[in-house]
Design a protein that fits this description.
With 545 residues, the protein is an alpha+beta fold. It contains 14 helices and 14 strands. The strands form five sheets. It has a four-stranded mixed beta sheet. It has a three-stranded antiparallel beta sheet with strand order 1-3-2, with helices on one face. Helix 6 links the parallel strand 5 and strand 6. Helix 2 packs antiparallel against helix 11 and helix 7 runs antiparallel to helix 9. The protein is elongated and about 235 Å long.
Length: 545
């Protein structure tokens, strides 16, 4: 224990304080490195949350002791340990979180329905319907958030003309919605609300752009639908022609433009044709009539005529008249054709297709590619293919032009680099790359601290300092050339490090001691050989002092 205390006392208070400060700094640094390396990797649990949903999610996670982080100016992104993301999402979904700022039909699960008025029930039903529609709209891939506002007029008992419902939808998008998806949203809402028509639904995105106008007239909607149909037709035909050309001249070596002209007029025609040569018996009616009559004879007025039986005798003696009548009516139906034809707007009125094709390139004498135009026969075959692909109609006035021109940029041969097996197997994500970079920086800092601080400190602690030979000899009362005595409690010379300053001082003292010993022996031999001269020299030194 005493050597340790002597070593500590030898360091001094200043050196001990410095060593303590360095030790505390190292402990804090390595504790930070360990905690940083042992901290769980965080991932995005939910993004673009409202402040209410973010607050509810964080409260639930903190109540369960789960570490969370928030990002964004308003904390819209909630971070959680990456390994627990799936489990946390399922647990929060079971609790109805996040609710996305709206409620659905679960609003009727709370509260007392018997104590609620009809007005409150109507408002709750409207809120629930809006919330359910918003949830259904958010199921679309590019829709991040949705808000639905329904205007459903109140039913009146003595009102014959009922107002038509309307709706307004605000969408927060991650990208763009094509016209088909916008129509799908309108029909989805219209199908869920009684009496609501798709034309009465307005849709606006988060940037204030009008995606669907619910106040436009039928003519405006028809014109907008015609424009969308024209753009879709041009895009479809262009993709078909580009696909054919890419298989012949290569990808990117052909430019295609399609202009479609549609007829926006709605034509309704009716025609009725009669064929007099084609007769069909529709009905036949036959009527037979037979009539018999007898006239009375000429008799005078007498008493005998009034007797019983006198009338019968008179009728038998009268004239008789028989009449037969046959009538036949035949009705004929003349063949008639009635035709009603309605041509809706949007018929293809004319198509114009322009195709520009680059020529061929062959290596020249100097190794550079040399341009060569394509033959006319090849261009004619390409023109025939394009006409077949677009449904060419000469009577309609369609035009197709295929021209061979040199492009401004010559083709560059693609160099496909062979991907190594390790690079193909290890495809780290962005989060993994950032994590590896963070660990690499911490490892580099640790190495710098070890080499710059820990190693010199350990060398100073392990190495025993030895005073220079001259100072030690002076402190012991010896001459400048005297040997250095061994310090009590000091380590043996073999225990000193070969490269330490103390070791070099000890080796220097050994060599100096040997030289001094040899000098003293030679002086002693001279004194023994010449005692009288030695006495005279000493007597002179004494006189000088």
């Amino acid at each position: 224990m005493k050597p340790v205390l002597d070593l500590v006392a030898k360091f001094g208070p200043a050196r001990l304080a410095a060593m303590g400060a360095v030790t505390l700094t190292l402990v804090g640094f390595f504790a930070f490195v360990i905690l940083r390396a042992a901290r769980p990797e965080m991932g995005v649990l939910y993004a673009d949350l409202s402040m209410q949903d973010a607050s509810a999610v964080i409260r639930d996670l903190e109540a369960r002791g789960i570490r969370t982080e928030t990002r964004g100016d308003t904390g819209q992104t909630v971070m959680a340990p990456r390994a627990d993301l799936a489990r946390l999402r399922m647990d929060l979904a079971g609790k109805g979180l996040p609710s996305a700022g709206g409620v659905g039909y679960e609003i009727f699960d709370k509260g007392d329905a018997f104590s609620s008025t009809s007005f409150v029930q109507g408002v709750n039903h409207l809120r629930a319907l809006e919330g359910e529609l918003a949830r259904s709209i958010r199921a679309i891939g590019r829709v991040q958030a949705a808000r639905v506002h329904l205007v459903i007029p109140e039913k009146r008992l003595f009102n014959r003309d009922r107002e038509v419902p309307s709706a307004a939808i605000v969408l927060k998008l991650a990208g763009e919605l094509d016209p088909g998806q916008v129509r799908a949203v309108r029909h989805l809402v219209a199908s869920a609300v009684e009496g609501l028509k798709p034309e009465r639904i307005s849709i606006v995105d988060e940037r204030g752009r009008l995606l669907a106008d619910g106040a436009a007239s039928e003519e405006g909607e028809a014109r907008r639908g015609l424009d969308e149909r024209q753009a879709g037709l041009e895009q479809r035909l262009r993709a078909q022609v580009e696909g054919i050309m890419a298989g012949i001249v290569g990808s990117g070596r052909a430019r295609v433009q399609v202009a479609a002209e549609l007829d926006a007029n709605r034509v309704e025609s009716r025609s009725e044709t009669f064929d007099p040569e084609s007769r069909v018996v529709r009905s036949t009616q036959t009527r037979s009539e037979m009539q018999a009559s007898q006239g009375p004879g000429e008799t005078g007025v007498s008493v005998g005529n009034e007797l019983p039986g006198a009338r019968e005798n008179q009728q038998q003696t009268g004239t008789r008249e028989n009449t037969n009548k046959n009538e036949e009516t035949t009705n004929y139906e003349i063949s008639r054709v009635t035709r009603t034809e309605v041509n809706e707007g949007g018929r293809i009125k004319r198509l114009s297709v322009a195709v520009v094709i680059d020529g061929t390139y062959a290596p020249g004498p100097d190794g550079k590619p040399v341009y060569a135009p394509r033959p006319q026969e090849e261009l004619d075959r390409m023109t025939a293919l394009v006409r077949t692909a677009i449904g060419y109609d000469k009577a309609r006035g369609d035009q197709v032009e295929v021209v061979n021109l040199r492009f401004a940029d010559s083709p560059v041969p693609a160099e496909i680099a062979e991907e190594g097996l390790l690079a193909s197997l290890l495809r780290p994500t962005k989060e993994e790359v950032l994590r590896f970079a963070e660990l690499g920086v911490l490892a580099l800092l640790t190495l710098v601290v070890v080499l710059a601080v820990v190693r010199p400190l350990l060398r100073q602690v392990i190495t025993v300092e030895v005073a220079p030979a001259e100072l030690a000899a002076a402190g012991a009362g010896l001459g400048p050339g005297s040997a250095v005595p061994t310090l009590p409690g000091a380590a043996p010379e073999d225990a000193l490090l070969p490269e330490s300053p103390a070791h070099r001082l000890v080796e220097f003292a050994k060599v100096n001691g040997k030289i001094q010993a040899e000098t003293i022996e030679r002086v002693a031999d001279i004194v023994r050989q010449n005692p009288a001269e030695t006495a005279e020299v000493l007597r002179g030194w004494i006189n000088d002092r």
